[in-house]
């Protein structure tokens, strides 16, 4: 049933008498208008001789004088090209296909350029991995004010000639090894260049270092299949997905699996995949799972061993709690019945565990996992990195060239690294920033952004991507490959080198076609694959044939015996916004709220409610709804991390705390963005699982958390969900009920014109735009939010303002928690209890609704109501309805009364409290010339005092219409796109003209799952949602 | 600060207010300042000098026929005076042997191939650019051309501004005559007044002399008129209401033209004459402003576009010069272009040193207004002159339209959408014409005055 559940956004709402929730549900704005602050000191005000009338006179006079004086406009210059490039027409966007590869995120993208400036990233539909929020935000990092603009030698600016000359001299005279410490390039051409460099100098070692390691999975795969790679997965083929601690909708194994996953999640012909997630912290994957079982990190290992037993042998002995054990058994049953459509994935940082996962999938005969065409996106080798630091300290390294990584910040043993660096004669860092490592280097080679670079990326064994520059380098930079070529006395430029290398190796694809598409299939030329292959250690070199031939018993034994250590367990993870921390100086990402916690501008220790209570940790909402949390000191081994803020997270497994990596960077990062704590020192042995002891520290941390903002305000039916069983068997009105009102004592649907206050307009002529958002396909990844920022010049307001709920996001992804399906599952839970200790704990859990909530993500944007409440209250008609269905907002007419925001039931209107562009107080990208280059010239930069909101990307629909008019043709379905619909690689957001009968959107508007948010308000929105269906079918 | 030519001055305001009081005309504020000051300059009636000077030479050959041939066949690469792609041709008949010339013109490549010294030398001198053969020219034709090139250079004559003069005298004549008539009338009136006064004075004197008692007007002991006016409340209220209304009308009119730069005519870094390009030479607007077909901006042409023609046009014809701007002036402006684009006229080669031209932008829309040229020019088929005015007559470009929102909306209300033959409009046109019961749809009926069509 859809409406029996209680939805809540914050734990605070579950408290019966929360005064804060009570006040918030009645309040128009989160904050009172700060008149006291504005008026300043009351005493001096009263002492003043200027009366109110005098003041008004002065104001009136000076305003009039100022406006009269300002009558003359400024003289504007217009400077055309001297020689206009052939492909550039001012005012017309060009698109180029390229590939992002920063060592953590790898993605095929399309880049929109205007007058030669990249202004937006779109995902390349031909590519193998989708584009996440960070990929979309990467265009802003091109215009990063903190970028290194010239090469440095001992802190002084030098020319490249001098730079090359000095280093070549030193390389020739080097005493000891030359070591290249690089990110994963996954680039065949770079491998070849490094080989040539090695031949030129001899005694060269190449060490690949992944900031966030996938070493265990790589080792396991290499042992079995002989290639240092990761298996590929195609989740669209999956019927049953069991994940043990793998956030495969996040950054697990290089990420990018969410698009295929979402395909299998949309119920078609009564079928959808079933997803069971065993995990410790609340991940995106857990939020999207049909069933989520929280368990500790050590239990994850035991659970995997048990699952192996259940899948391969049908039984397993384990001492896991009964509920977990049963869930495992039922999961195994389901896996077996799904056969080749079954897949098990795991994120346990342990070679045995990863090896077992491969065994299980082989035993299942899974078609989802592909080992023949594995992923090449992680190459880091932990053992080699450790060896390198040891060698450095032993004085065996003569020259260290560091490219694309920042070990002085991100190595768990950064101190040893820094010490070892002192023994190295020649230290060269290739970096875009003057970061921690660059500060310690003698020479810093300024490298270009990927949008200014050439390159190739080997996604999988046979799928490649090409990188091409989309703008001339902004600064005097030279990319790693070019520099290495010069140092190897090779005078070819890297672009020519790349072309020569690939011509002939692309199969039938010509170079220009491959460059145009950005992706191609082929084989790595001349054995220069991005990875080095080694002979398979086991007998199972031929892939899936060798199922079971690997001896898993020792692995099972090791895992089952894994015991929880002292104290709590700590899980280190990468957040959706920050990833490994490469783009810490990107304000879009800093302000992107985490999909689960809804907190921005921070990392924090996620703690379960029970643990928090035991340790006396608190989260509290202050009167304006903002969240404060206690501080703790973390101790892992002998490393202490002080003053880490605590975030009490519903659904967090008891006994486990989690902390995001990638924050707390100080060098090369603007002061405003030096937020959070650096968790890398705790990343001991490159393992995301650690044991930790916690002690409470004093003080309270202020979060910029949107958790309690825009509460449901007592409104139901904003999200609808049902189960697959009900969806398949029951009538639509049972699970997707249309609200009724009484008209002359007859129940009438609210959509009926008879019960409407307003007359409807004829909307059948011309275009009528609608948007459909599928709650089943939305994973909450946030790519649409960033795409919207880039397209619509949405300003960044900073942590303090976000805390006051003044974020300017036109599109937000609301996260609703709901407790497990009412009483039914609670009774089941009670029946499953065993033993006194267990039951005591679980009874307590039963009483608290928030310990393992279910999650629904709902992208919320202006609903473009046909009967919009905002339009009727605007005193100056600054917002009105367009014929194409948009609710239009006219900035130049708005006087800022904010009545519309008050009257909006969806709370999607955003008010410009300040001028955010060219304002020192908001020193983000809009405050410097470089950062402003990312602005979309077709969209107004709003000024202070006006309301703004989603425009349905009218600049894009108008462009599509104009193109069609100019070419004298009708518009095809799929041509109309908004920034969010184009960015959604899951296909959750569909946009189109509903008056085109054959369009997808027309079909979706007739779909059984379709509903409007708050239908009973009678606003007749043009945004539709598709009811969420959960596959709760137990095998 | 912008210097706007036709901004209302205070005097103008007074004038307008006077005219308003007399004719309550709502359109007084409409900004239709006449451009008469420039019109006389624009009228170009200068005759070319060649016709008068070129006489059929004794050497045989019809210079007039030769001129025609020269302009069609030779002028693309040769000028009479000054080198272009090929050498200057004035007096070439005297410099070279006539027979050699005939051979060269008919097939220069053959002559070079034969190893003729002169031919090879000239071929090498002009960057080995082959001159196309002209086998179609008869000997007479070639003689005619040579006759034309041999004509001595015309001495710049005094310009025969006959037409202009005539217009001036004509216009002046009518102006003078009305003035004279008015003057005479005024004089007559004045004289009548004087006569009346004198007559009156004389009569009085007669009366005094003849002892006639003239009735003396009694001084009424009433209130002065202003006092009675002040006491009459109705009148006071009426006057103040009128004053307030009139005042606000003018205040409104004044404020409404704030930020409206109609007539804005800045001095540009290069004196580019649209009159010469679009008017005299009839170059289509979109030939240079090509991005107006596809883009929102019409695009100020990049300098390489200028050089497509100006590579071979390094000076203007005598006939292009006007009273105000001499040929030297125009040639100097072309030289500015060469400096900017880095073109070495002597060597006919680019130097690579460029200096972008910083034009002063005339038509400025505020950031919150979106305007797309291709929508209007390409889809709507609107002539550029509809908004930009008679550009082909503008010696110096100015802003013709007020570019106010009211002006936009008005046009959108009155203009029909060009739907014919455009498949995009087929369905919507059919449905909307039925709905509104009209034959043709205006832009407004199509939704073209919705706020967010231009403001986003």
Radius of gyration of chain B: 34 Å
Indicate the percent of residues in helices of chain B. 40-55%
The main β sheet of chain B shows up as: 2 strands, antiparallel
From the 3D structure, determine the CATH topology of the domain at 50-150 in chain B: Cytochrome Bc1 Complex, Chain D, domain 2
Average pLDDT over all residues of chain A? 87
Give the CATH H-level superfamily of the domain at 50-150 in chain B.
Answer: Cytochrome c-like domain
Give start-end ranges of low-pLDDT stretches of chain A. 533-548
**How would you sum up the global shape of chain B?**
extended
- Describe the global form of chain A: globular
CATH class of the domain at 50-150 in chain B: Mainly Alpha
Strand order of the largest sheet of chain B: 1-2
Class computed from helices, strands and strand pairing of chain A: alpha/beta
Through-space gap between termini of chain B: 28 Å
| Total number of strands of chain B | 3
pLDDT under 50 segments of chain B (min length 5)?
Answer: 23-58, 158-173
Give the tally of structural domains of chain A.
Answer: 4
Please, how many helices of chain A? 35
Domain 4Fe-4S ferredoxin-type (chain A): 769-799, 853-884, 885-914
Pfam families (chain A): Fer4_11
Protein name (chain A): Quinol:cytochrome c oxidoreductase iron-sulfur protein
Organism (chain B): Salinimicrobium sediminis
Task: Explain the overall architecture.
Chain A: This is Quinol:cytochrome c oxidoreductase iron-sulfur protein. Chain A: It holds the Pfam family Fer4_11. Chain A: Residues 769-799, 853-884, 885-914 form the 4Fe-4S ferredoxin-type domain. Chain A: It comes from Salinimicrobium sediminis. Helices cover 29% and strands 21% of the residues of chain A. By secondary structure, chain A is an alpha/beta fold. Chain A has a 7-stranded mixed beta sheet, with helices on both faces. In chain A, strands 22, 24, 25, 26, 27, 28 and 29 form a 7-stranded mixed beta sheet that branches. The longest helix of chain B is centred in the middle third of the chain and has 49 residues, at 162-210. Chain B is 49% helix and 1% strand. Chain B has a domain at 50-150: Cytochrome Bc1 Complex, Chain D, domain 2. Chain B has helices at residues 10-22, 36-42, 50-53, 63-74, 92-95, 98-106, 108-113, 117-125, 139-150, 162-210, 225-231, 233-256, 274-280, 285-288, 303-310, 327-341, 373-379, 385-388, 405-414, 426-436, and strands at 343-344, 349-350, 359-360. With 456 residues, chain B is mainly alpha-helical. Chain B has a two-stranded antiparallel ribbon with strand order 1-2. The chains are: A alpha/beta (1035), B mainly alpha (456). The interface between A and B is large, with 51 and 59 residues.
């Amino acid at each position: 049933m859809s409406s029996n559940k209680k939805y809540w956004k914050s734990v605070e709402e579950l408290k019966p008498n929360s005064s804060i929730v009570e006040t918030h549900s009645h309040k128009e704005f989160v904050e009172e208008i700060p008149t006291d602050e504005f008026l300043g000191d009351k005493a001096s005000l009263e002492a003043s001789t200027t009366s109110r009338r005098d003041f008004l006179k002065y104001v009136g006079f000076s305003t009039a004088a100022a406006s009269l004086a300002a009558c003359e406009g400024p003289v504007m210059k217009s400077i055309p090209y001297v020689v206009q490039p052939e492909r550039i027409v001012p005012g017309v966007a060009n698109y180029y296909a390229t590939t992002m590869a920063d060592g953590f995120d790898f993605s095929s993208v399309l880049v929109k350029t205007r007058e030669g400036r990249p202004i937006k990233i779109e995902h390349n539909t031909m590519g193998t991995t989708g584009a996440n929020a960070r990929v979309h935000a990467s265009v802003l990092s091109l215009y990063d004010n903190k970028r290194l603009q010239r090469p440095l030698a001992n802190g002084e600016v030098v020319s490249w000639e001098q730079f090359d000359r000095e280093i070549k001299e030193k390389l020739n005279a080097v005493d000891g090894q030359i070591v290249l410490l690089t990110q994963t390039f996954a680039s065949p051409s770079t491998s070849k260049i490094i080989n040539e460099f090695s031949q030129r100098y001899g005694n060269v070692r190449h060490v690949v270092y992944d900031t966030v390691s996938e070493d265990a999975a790589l080792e396991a795969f290499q042992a079995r299949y002989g290639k240092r790679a990761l298996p590929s997965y195609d989740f669209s083929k999956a019927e049953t997905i069991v994940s043990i601690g793998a956030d495969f909708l996040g950054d697990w194994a290089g990420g990018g699996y969410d698009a295929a996953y979402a395909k299998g999640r949309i119920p078609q012909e009564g079928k959808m995949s079933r997803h069971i997630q065993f995990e410790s912290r609340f991940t995106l994957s857990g939020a999207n799972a049909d069933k989520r079982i929280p368990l500790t990190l050590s239990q994850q290992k035991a659970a995997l061993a048990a699952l192996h037993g259940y899948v391969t042998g049908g039984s397993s002995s384990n001492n896991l709690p009964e509920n977990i054990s049963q869930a495992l058994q039922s999961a195994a049953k389901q896996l077996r019945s799904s056969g080749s459509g079954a897949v098990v994935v795991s994120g346990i940082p342990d070679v045995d565990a990863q090896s077992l996962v491969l065994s299980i999938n082989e035993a299942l005969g899974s078609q989802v996992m592909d080992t023949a065409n594995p992923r090449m996106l992680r190459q880091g080798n932990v053992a080699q990195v450790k060896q390198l630091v040891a060698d450095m300290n032993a004085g065996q390294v003569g020259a260290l060239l560091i490219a694309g990584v920042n070990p002085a910040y991100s190595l768990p043993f950064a101190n040893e690294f820094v010490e070892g660096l002192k023994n190295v004669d020649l230290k060269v860092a290739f970096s875009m920033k003057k970061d921690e490592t660059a500060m310690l280097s003698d020479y810093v080679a300024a490298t270009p952004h990927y949008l200014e670079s050439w390159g190739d990326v080997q996604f999988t064994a046979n799928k490649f991507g090409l990188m091409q520059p989309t703008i001339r380098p902004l600064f005097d930079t030279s990319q790693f490959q070019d520099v290495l070529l010069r140092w190897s006395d090779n005078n070819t430029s890297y672009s020519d080198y790349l072309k020569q290398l690939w011509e002939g190796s692309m199969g039938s694809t010509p170079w220009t076609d491959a460059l145009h598409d950005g992706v191609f299939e082929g084989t790595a030329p001349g054995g220069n694959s991005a990875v080095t292959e080694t002979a398979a250690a086991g007998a199972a070199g031929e892939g899936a044939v060798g199922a079971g031939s690997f001896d898993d018993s020792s692995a099972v034994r090791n895992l089952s015996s894994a015991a929880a250590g002292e104290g709590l367990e700590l899980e280190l993870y990468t957040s959706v916004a920050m990833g490994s921390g490469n783009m810490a100086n990107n304000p879009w990402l800093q302000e992107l709220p985490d999909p689960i916690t809804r907190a921005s501008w921070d990392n924090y220790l996620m703690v379960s409610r029970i643990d928090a209570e035991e340790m006396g940790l608190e989260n509290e909402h202050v009167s304006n709804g903002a969240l404060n949390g206690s501080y703790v000191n973390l101790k892992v081994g002998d490393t202490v991390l002080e003053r880490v803020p605590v975030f009490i997270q519903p659904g967090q497994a008891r006994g486990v705390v989690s902390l995001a990596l990638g924050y707390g960077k100080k060098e090369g990062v603007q002061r405003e963005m030096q937020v959070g704590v650096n968790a890398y020192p705790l990343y001991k042995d490159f393992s995301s699982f650690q044991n930790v002891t916690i002690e409470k520290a004093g003080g309270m941390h202020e979060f910029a958390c949107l958790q309690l903002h825009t509460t449901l305000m007592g409104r139901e039916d904003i999200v609808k969900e049902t189960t697959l069983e009900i969806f398949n068997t029951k009538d639509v009105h049972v699970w997707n009920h249309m609200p009724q009102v009484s008209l002359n004592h007859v129940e009438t649907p609210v959509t009926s014109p008879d019960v409407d206050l307003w007359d409807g307009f004829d909307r059948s002529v011309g275009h009528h735009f609608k948007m459909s958002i599928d709650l089943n396909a939305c994973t909450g990844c946030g790519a649409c939010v960033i795409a919207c920022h880039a397209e619509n010049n949405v300003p960044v307001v900073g942590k303090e303002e976000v805390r006051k709920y003044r974020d300017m996001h036109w599109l937000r992804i609301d996260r609703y928690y709901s407790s497990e399906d009412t009483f039914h599952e609670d009774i089941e839970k009670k029946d499953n209890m065993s033993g006194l200790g267990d039951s005591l704990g679980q009874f307590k859990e039963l009483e608290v609704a928030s310990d393992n909530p279910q999650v629904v993500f709902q992208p919320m944007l202006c609903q473009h109501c046909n009967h919009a409440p905002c339009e009727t209250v605007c005193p100056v008609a600054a917002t009105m309805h367009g014929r194409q269905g948009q609710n239009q907002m006219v900035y130049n007419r708005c006087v800022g009364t904010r009545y519309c925001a008050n009257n909006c039931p969806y709370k999607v209107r955003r008010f410009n409290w300040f001028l955010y562009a060219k304002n020192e107080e908001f020193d983000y990208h809009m405050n410097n010339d470089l950062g402003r280059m990312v602005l979309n010239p077709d969209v107004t930069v709003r000024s202070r005092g006006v309301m703004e909101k989603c425009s349905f990307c009218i600049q894009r629909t108008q462009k599509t219409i104009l193109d069609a008019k100019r070419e004298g043709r009708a518009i095809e379905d799929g041509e109309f796109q908004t920034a969010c619909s184009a960015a959604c690689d899951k296909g959750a957001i569909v946009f189109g003209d509903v008056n085109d009968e054959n369009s997808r959107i027309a079909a979706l508007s007739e779909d059984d799952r379709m509903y409007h948010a708050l239908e009973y308000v009678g606003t007749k929105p043009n945004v539709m949602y598709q009811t969420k269906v959960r596959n709760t079918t137990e095998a | 600060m912008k210097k706007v030519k036709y901004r209302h001055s205070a005097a103008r305001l007074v004038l307008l207010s006077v005219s308003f009081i007399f004719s309550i005309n709502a359109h007084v504020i409409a900004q239709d300042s006449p451009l008469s000051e420039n019109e006389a300059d624009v009228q170009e009636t200068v005759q070319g000098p060649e016709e008068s000077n070129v006489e059929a030479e004794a050497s045989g050959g019809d210079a007039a026929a030769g001129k025609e041939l020269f302009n069609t066949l030779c002028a693309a690469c040769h000028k009479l005076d000054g080198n272009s792609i090929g050498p200057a041709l004035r007096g070439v008949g005297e410099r070279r042997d006539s027979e050699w010339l005939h051979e060269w013109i008919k097939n220069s490549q053959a002559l070079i191939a034969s190893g003729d010294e002169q031919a090879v030398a000239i071929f090498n001198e002009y960057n080995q650019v082959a001159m196309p053969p002209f086998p179609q020219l008869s000997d007479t034709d070639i003689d005619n051309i040579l006759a034309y090139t041999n004509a001595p250079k015309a001495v710049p004559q005094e310009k025969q501004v006959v037409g202009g003069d005539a217009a001036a005298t004509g216009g002046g004549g009518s102006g003078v005559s009305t003035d004279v008539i008015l003057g005479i009338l005024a004089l007559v009136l004045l004289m009548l007044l004087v006569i009346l006064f004198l007559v009156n004075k004389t009569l009085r004197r007669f009366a005094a002399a003849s002892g006639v008692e003239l009735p003396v007007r009694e001084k009424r002991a009433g209130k002065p008129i202003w006092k009675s006016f002040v006491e009459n409340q109705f009148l006071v209220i009426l006057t103040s209401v009128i004053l307030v209304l009139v005042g606000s009308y003018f205040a409104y009119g004044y404020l409404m033209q704030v930020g409206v730069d109609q007539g804005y005519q800045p001095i540009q870094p290069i004196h580019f004459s649209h009159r010469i390009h679009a008017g005299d030479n009839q170059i289509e607007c979109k030939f240079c402003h090509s991005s107006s077909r596809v883009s929102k901006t019409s695009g100020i042409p990049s300098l390489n576009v200028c050089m497509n023609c100006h590579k071979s046009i390094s000076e203007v014809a005598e006939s292009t010069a006007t009273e105000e701007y001499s040929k030297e002036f125009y040639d100097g402006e072309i030289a500015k272009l060469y400096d900017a684009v880095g073109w070495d006229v002597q060597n006919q080669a680019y130097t690579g040193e460029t200096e972008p031209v910083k034009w002063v932008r005339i038509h400025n829309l505020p950031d919150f207004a979106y305007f797309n040229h291709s929508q209007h020019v390409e889809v709507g088929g609107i002539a550029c002159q509809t908004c930009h005015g008679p550009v082909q007559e503008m010696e110096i470009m100015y802003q013709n339209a007020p570019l106010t929102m009211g002006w936009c909306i008005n046009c959108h209300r009155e203009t029909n959408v060009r739907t014919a033959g455009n498949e995009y409009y087929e369905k919507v046109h059919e449905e909307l014409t039925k709905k509104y019961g009209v034959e043709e749809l205006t832009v407004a009926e199509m939704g073209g005055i919705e706020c967010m069509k231009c403001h986003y």
